[in-house]
Design a protein that fits this description.
This protein is an alpha+beta fold. It has five helices and three strands; from the N terminus they run H-H-E-H-H-E-E-H. It has a single domain, classed as Orthogonal Bundle (Arc Repressor Mutant, subunit A). The protein starts with 6 loop residues before the first helix and ends with a helix.
């Protein structure tokens, strides 16, 4: 386990996004507007942080249509799920070491 926290996840907004996506089953996705609502973030702010997570290959962003309506679905990748697990393990270790 590394002693440093993953800087991609460590930003507060990206930590919130990753934590929320980690609550989904590995084969589940969530629609962008639902995630935006749950996190109470603006669309622009959420999009910016999702782009960074996508660049790190921590999330997948699937753009599709339901009828004529565009829909964006989000999910953690296996790499993203592992990064979140490593992050939380490192954080627990740092907290335990501070006790």
């Amino acid at each position: 386990m590394s002693e440093s926290l993953d800087p991609v996840i460590h930003a507060a907004a990206r930590l919130r996004i990753t934590a929320k996506l980690a609550t989904l089953d590995a084969d589940e996705q969530i629609a962008f507007p639902r995630l935006q609502q749950l996190l109470e973030m603006t669309a622009g702010n959420l999009s910016t942080h999702l782009q960074r997570l996508e660049e790190a290959e921590y999330v997948t962003i699937e753009k599709t249509h339901q009828g004529r309506t565009p829909v964006t679905y989000l999910a953690l990748t296996p790499r993203g799920r592992r990064a979140f697990e490593d992050y939380t393990a490192t954080l627990r270790g740092l907290i335990a070491g501070a006790s």
